[in-house]
Amino acid sequence: MLPSKLELQSFPRRNDAEIAVAAEIADLIHDRNQEGLPTVLGLATGSTPIGVYAELVRRHREQGLDFSAVTTFNLDEFVGLSPQHPASFHAFMDQHLFSKVNLPKDQTHVLAGHLPMEALEEECASFEDRIRQAGGIDFQLLGIGRNGHIGFNEPPSSGDSRTRLVTLDATTHRAYQDGFAAGEMPNYALTMGVATILESRRIVLAALGEVKADIMLALQGTFDDPDLPASFLHRHPNAALVLDAPAGSKLKDPTGSQAGGK
Ligand code: GLP
Questions:
Q1: Which of 44, 43, 52, 63 is nearest to 17 (CA)?
Q2: pLDDT given for residue 238 in this prediction
Q3: Phi, psi (5° rounding) for residue 8?
């Protein structure tokens, strides 16, 4: 096996993992606020980050964690869905974070998948420009699909891919169809590219629950493989995998073989 630079953090319970991820984000925001610096976060949707966002909201309410100098970029969004549709990632972010903290709306960036098809290429280029203008992403939060996707970088996705229009695969369709009426589930999405994600200065991929055990095992033995898009993370100099015990249950040596495990 090639050496991985991925730091492995394993926690007994889901909630411990969620709190650890939220604490890292909160500390980053706090430290940068103290220094008078803005913080640029890359954010994810799905079931995995819900507990992380809940803990960030708690820290905002109870400890005054200040989001006024935070800028956010979300990984992805469905194409052809109004931002008000309850299954859109716009709505998800409003529900779980944006409406609950003091994050100015104009500092949040979610890809505008509702625009007409002919405007989407320009939207993707503009999104990349906005990340650059913000100074790049300080901290990128990732989940992982059961097929190994990060964002909506479905297999196969190259390590050079940028923000673009993608076709959703069958695994993703199955994962999301409950949120849609029959025939309403979009076939396309916009996603930050693998290369765009890898430019983040810090990346944390959270994988929680037994449902992620098989893809974690596959990730442990796979490097730079477009068929497992998360495998490009192994070469990032500052990335961590945060697992609860069920997600790590099939790993060989879940606590040791990767650098920095605890
Ligand atoms: C989705 C999102 C990903 C997310 C993944 C896992 O399709 N586009 O960004 O990480 O699936 O979702 P969950 O956390 O619900 O398992």
A1: 52
A2: 97
A3: -105, 125
Domain that holds residue 199: 12-244
Residue nearest to atom 9 of ligand 1 (CA): 151
Cα 209 to Cα 47, 114, 123, 146, 250: the distances in Å are 10, 32, 34, 11, 12
Question: Does residue 255 lie in a domain region?
Answer: no
- Please tell me the distance between residue 112's alpha carbon and the centre of ligand 1 in angstroms: 18
Q: Which atom of ligand 1 is nearest to the CA of 142?
A: 10
Query: CA 244, CA 232: separation in Å to the nearest integer?
Result: 22
CA of 44 to the centre of ligand 1 (A): 7
Q: For the segment 51-106, what is each residue's pLDDT rounded down to a tens digit?
A: 999 999 999 999 999 999 999 999 999 999 999 999 999 999 999 999 999 999 99
Say yes or no: CB of residue 205 within 6 Å of ligand 1. Answer: no
Contact 197, 42 (CB under 8 A): yes
Catalytic residues: 76, 147, 149, 154
Token readout for 214 is 């098989």
Q: Structural domain tally of the chain?
A: 1
If we measure between CA atoms, which residue out of 53, 48, 45, 22 comes closest to residue 208?
48
* 56 found inside a domain: yes
**Helix, strand or coil for residue 233?**
helix
| Distance between Cα 29 and ligand 1 center (Å) | 24
Q: Residue 76 falls within a domain, yes or no?
A: yes
Measured by CA distance, the residue closest to atom 5 of ligand 1 is 145
